[in-house]
Design a protein that fits this description.
Blueprint lengths: L1 H34 L6 H32 L10 H18 L3 E8 L2 H8 L1 H17 L6 E4 L4 E7 L3 H16 L2 E4 L2 E4 L2 E8 L5 H25 L1
Antiparallel strand pairs: 1-3, 1-6, 2-3, 4-5
Helix pairs in contact: 4-5
């Protein structure tokens, strides 16, 4: 009886072991299936890559268009220099740089003389010719790092870097002289314009509004001086 029992127990153990061996591979396969990443068909992968490339190209084009629109919004279409919006933005950035790095600079405000009589007598095309010549003259006398902008119809501003007050006033006087020397021939008559310049020095305590106001006030003082100079001659 003991031998029979031992034989029966041995047979049951063998059957259980065999069943376990049959179940184990199934479990291993299920675990492997869960652990292995899903295989993406090559066609779908290529399509996804193409979509990413297309989206990147569209994003780059949109960014370029935004930059172009921003540039056009800050550029004077007639003279191809910064308009008031663009110049004030550049002035604000420059003042922030001056404050942070203890740099120096100057703001020159230029008001064109006798532009309205030229427009009234010879037409706005003549006035545009005068303005273009003035911008060409001013930009030829400043450095690439300096900034020239048109604030209004006959008002211009120049941002000059790393100049003392004496040098800035000398530059403003030189710009006045160069513009005064410009002459134009309209309908057989020789015409000149001229300009009055005011200077504001930029430093650690400057801000955009105050700098523009100081340069504007100095410009009007200079314009009054030039009128008296003409009367006294």
């Amino acid at each position: 009886m003991k031998k029979k029992r031992r034989a029966a127990a041995s047979g049951a153990a063998k059957r259980k072991s065999a069943a376990a061996r049959k179940v184990a591979p199934r479990r291993d396969r299920a675990a492997a299936a869960q652990a292995a990443p899903a295989q993406v068909p090559s066609a779908a992968l290529n399509q996804a890559k193409a979509t990413i490339r297309r989206l990147r190209a569209e994003l780059a084009a949109a960014q370029a268009e935004i930059a172009e629109l921003q540039a056009s919004a800050e550029t004077d279409f007639l003279l191809d220099i910064l308009n008031r919006r663009g110049f004030e933005r550049e002035l604000s950035r420059s003042i922030a740089y001056i404050k942070r790095y203890h740099a120096s600079g100057a703001l020159v405000m230029l008001d064109v003389d006798r532009l309205k009589p030229i427009n009234d007598t010879y037409g706005h095309a003549a006035g545009d010719t005068v303005l273009k010549a003035i911008v060409k003259t001013v930009t030829s006398q400043v450095r690439a790092s300096d900034v020239v902008g048109r604030l209004g119809g006959d008002e211009f501003a120049v941002l000059l870097w790393n100049l003392t007050e004496t040098d800035a006033k000398a530059k403003a006087a030189a710009l006045e002289l160069s513009i005064d020397r410009l002459t134009f021939d309209f309908r057989g008559r020789s015409v000149s314009a001229g300009a009055s310049a005011g200077v504001a020095i930029l430093g650690p305590h400057s801000d955009t509004s105050r700098a523009l106001e100081e340069a504007d006030s100095a410009m009007y003082v200079r314009k009054a001086q030039r009128r008296h100079e003409v009367v006294g001659q």
